[in-house]
């Protein structure tokens, strides 16, 4: 029997839940996340997204088939056309100008996560890279769905972070997430147990770096 994406999350269930249900996420869903924490997160996320777009471009470079190339393109589009497009306008609403974004120093959590993924993609193969990227694309789609399932999540004008949830529950982002899940499921179907263990290590490390990214937002750390 082959592996699936859900075997990756099952293999590091504690880290995966700590990421999806992080305090930053809960407070954002309940609408009482501190403004400064969100602003710090938003700024660093701009830098993060630029490096992750580079990582999808690396996935395109490493793609041997048209189907693989299309999948890398899907991820790149989700970041550049959906997230970054909304992000810049969203930052403006939160009082952060494009000039400020261009001059931002990178926080350590941003550096660690983005360079880890780029390094994993450079030294590994295409599946290593997609698995390192998965907590980002699949995780945020799952977070939006998890938030919507929580009775204390506030939606609409009552929650200043409603637009953030709306972006990740939106059709385009959810479609990109499902396409990524299908691509990973198809590749995991015929890996050996040893290869699956190596992929689990990558997935767990990237998930732990996502947890650090939330914590960086809460702590305002640089
Ligand atoms: C840190 C982080 N991880 C994931 C995502 C969703 N692409 C994001 N915007 N930022």
Automatic annotation (TrEMBL):
Keyword ATP-binding part of the UniProt annotation: no
InterPro entries reported for this sequence: Haem_Oase-like_multi-hlx, Thiaminase-2/PQQC, Thiaminase_II, Thiamine_Salvage_TenA
Keywords per UniProt: Hydrolase, Thiamine biosynthesis
Molecular function as annotated in GO: thiaminase activity
EC number: 3.5.99.2
Pfam families for the chain: TENA_THI-4 (PF03070)
An annotated GO cellular component: cytosol
Broad EC category: hydrolase
Catalytic activity, reaction form: 4-amino-5-aminomethyl-2-methylpyrimidine + H2O = 4-amino-5-hydroxymethyl-2-methylpyrimidine + NH4(+); thiamine + H2O = 5-(2-hydroxyethyl)-4-methylthiazole + 4-amino-5-hydroxymethyl-2-methylpyrimidine + H(+)
Domain Thiaminase-2/PQQC: 13-219
Lineage: superkingdom: Bacteria
Pathway(s) annotated for this protein in UniProt: Cofactor biosynthesis; thiamine diphosphate biosynthesis
One GO process term, biological-process aspect: thiamine diphosphate biosynthetic process
Function noted in UniProt: Catalyzes an amino-pyrimidine hydrolysis reaction at the C5' of the pyrimidine moiety of thiamine compounds, a reaction that is part of a thiamine salvage pathway.
Family to which this protein belongs: Belongs to the TenA family.
Name under which the protein is recorded: Aminopyrimidine aminohydrolase
Gene from which this protein is expressed: tenA
């Amino acid at each position: 029997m082959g592996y699936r994406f859900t075997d990756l999350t099952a293999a590091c269930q504690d880290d995966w839940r700590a990421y999806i249900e992080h305090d930053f996420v809960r407070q954002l869903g309940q609408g009482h996340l501190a403004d400064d924490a969100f602003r710090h997160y938003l700024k660093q996320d701009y830098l993060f997204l630029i490096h992750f777009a580079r990582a999808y471009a690396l996935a395109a470079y490493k793609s041997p088939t048209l189907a693989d190339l299309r999948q890398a393109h899907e991820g790149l589009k989700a970041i550049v056309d959906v997230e970054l497009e909304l992000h810049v306008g969203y930052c403006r609403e939160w009082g952060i100008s494009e000039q400020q974004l261009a001059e931002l120093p990178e926080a350590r959590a941003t550096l660690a996560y983005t360079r880890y993924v780029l390094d994993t993609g450079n030294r590994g193969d295409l599946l290593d890279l997609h698995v390192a990227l998965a907590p980002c694309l699949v995780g945020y789609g799952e977070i939006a769905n998890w938030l919507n399932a929580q009775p204390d999540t506030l939606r609409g004008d009552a929650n200043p972070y409603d637009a953030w949830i709306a972006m990740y529950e939106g059709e385009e982002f959810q479609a990109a997430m499902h396409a990524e899940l299908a691509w990973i499921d198809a590749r995991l179907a015929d890996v050996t147990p040893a290869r699956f263990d190596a992929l689990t290590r990558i997935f767990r490390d990237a998930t732990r770096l996502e947890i650090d990214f939330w914590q960086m937002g809460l702590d305002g750390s640089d």
